[in-house]
Design brief:
Layout (H helix, E strand, L loop, with lengths): L2 H8 L5 H8 L3 H13 L12 H4 L4 E9 L8 H8 L4 E6 L6 E7 L2 H12 L5 E9 L4 E2 L2 E2 L14
Helix pairs in contact: 2-3
């Protein structure tokens, strides 16, 4: 992977000046490369990773294993793209193994997620079955731990 992309993946808030210094490049060249990556859809967007527990947000998140029948002309793509267009869907991946798609969804309540599965996802032609797993508590999100690292110092032992 390109060094510029690695730096942006680790910290998308890095300034052009900082990136240019780290890469030993001219700022204009770095800015032009970023613009080209955005134009070519290599960089799709920028996001903040939030600790929803600290914000008091009560969002319900789930991953859903989906088994589907691949279509003759489109394989898995057309069904997966249709599923990915729903606003409740945060991520959608083609998988190997016992199921075909892994779909990550988000809703305001358990009922909202359940309604999405039963009324939208399960009713799509070609969807054979679903298995929903609710996320109870995040410990790590996209490489970042939700709580600061604790000191690994051992407590003193006394006789």
């Amino acid at each position: 992977m390109d060094a510029l992309l690695k730096l942006l993946r680790d910290d998308a808030r890095s300034s052009i000046d900082r990136l240019a210094r780290l890469l030993g490049m001219d700022e204009a060249e770095v800015a032009a490369r970023i613009a080209a990556y955005e134009r070519d859809n290599v960089i799709l967007g920028y996001r903040a990773i939030l600790n929803e527990e600290k914000l008091g947000v009560d969002t319900v998140r789930a991953v859903i294993e989906v088994r589907i029948t691949p279509e003759r002309e489109g394989g898995y793509d057309r069904i997966a793209e249709r599923i990915a267009r729903y606003s409740e869907v945060r991520s959608c991946y083609l998988m190997s193994g016992a199921y075909d798609l892994l779909v990550e969804v988000e809703g305001a309540s358990l009922r909202e997620v359940a309604m999405f599965v039963s009324e939208k996802l399960a009713t799509i032609q070609g969807v054979l079955s679903t298995a929903t797993h609710f996320m109870l508590k995040p410990y790590k999100e996209q490489g970042l731990t939700m709580k600061p690292e604790r000191s690994e110092e051992r407590l003193p032992v006394t006789p």
